[in-house]
Amino acid sequence: MLQRRLWRFAMLAFLPTLAIFAWVRIYPITETLRLSLHKWDILSKNKPFIGLDNFRELFHDRLFLDALVNTSIIAFGVLAVTIPLAITIAALIHHRTASRFSGFYETAVFIPHVVSLVPAAMAWKWIFDAKLGPLNALLQYFGVPAQPWLFDPVLSVICIIVLCSWQALGYAVLIYLVGFKSLPVSLFEAAKLDGAGGIQRFWYVSIPLLKPITLYVSVVTLISGFNVYAQAFVLASDSQGAPGRLVRVLVLDMLENSFRNYRVGYAASEAVVLLAIVLVLTLIQFGLLREKGRA
């Protein structure tokens, strides 16, 4: 009887938080799903139900397909850069944890994560500037010709990946540092007694034990990569100066369809596709971790 009362009290105490979560998270998702099944035009009073017509049109829309490809390249590029760099930097900082400068290292690595996105993107835009940017000045000093970083579609994607990785790195390093500090010292001592060197201990002991941390960081990084917007908007302007046109990404495409073309239902179907992609990739990552754990 007492346990039942405690359970009821816990549920009642949890209800306000659950209600807020449902209003902030669940309701927008269900409303987006509903909108995606309608021809929802801001300027029209008639909003008929059209079923899956928006989704059928999506995969014949060249702009959407370009945005999907660009966003996928950016998301996986950021993931491929961030995870190896983050775990390596975290290991180096953890190894130097006795140093009086370890706090400085941690702060220096984390600062890019808390810097405001648009000012940071503007600073990187200056770095990548074809005429006045320090990156091209450095390349020319070593005899490499200047590159049109922000005026070439391929190079612009690389610039966005660099900026996104720079911003994501600090958070990933912080999470990995927490993981390193929680690893049992006895395993490393046993490996050292068996003759394992520092790199072997890192590769065969640290990395397998940090798989749950790697899963979390990879999921967060991938979701952040698929939601890239401001980086492309600021960096990837076309030759006429129109923001975000050289490298089109999904969020930018959704905003243009919603507020420039007034096709809210069509933009909602894009959001549903983005949600499905992120959900599937997250489930795949969880599945891979579970299989490796069993092995």
Describe what you observe in this structure.
This protein has 2 domains: 36 residues; 243 residues, MetI-like (MetI-like fold), CATH 1.10.3720.10. With 295 residues, it is an all-alpha fold. It is built from 13 helices and no strands. α3 runs antiparallel to α10, α4 packs across α7 and α12 runs antiparallel to α13. The mean pLDDT is 84.
| Highest CATH level, the class of the largest domain | Mainly Alpha
The CATH architecture term of the largest domain is Orthogonal Bundle
Share of residues in helices:
over 70%
Q: Mean of residue pLDDT?
A: 84
CATH superfamily of the largest domain: MetI-like
**Record field, number of beta strands:** 0
Terminal Cα span: 44 Å
The CATH topology of the largest domain is MetI-like fold
Q: Rounded to an integer, what's the Rg over CA atoms?
A: 24 Å
Q: What percentage of amino acids are in beta strands?
A: under 5%
Q: Number of helical runs?
A: 13
Which geometry do the CA atoms define? flat
Largest sheet: none
What is the number of independent domains? 2
Compressed to H and E, one letter per element, the order equals: HHHHHHHHHHHHH
Structural class category: mainly alpha
**Low-confidence regions:** none
InterPro entries: ABC_transporter_permease, MetI-like, MetI-like_sf
GO cellular component, one term: plasma membrane
Family: Belongs to the binding-protein-dependent transport system permease family.
Subcellular location: Cell membrane
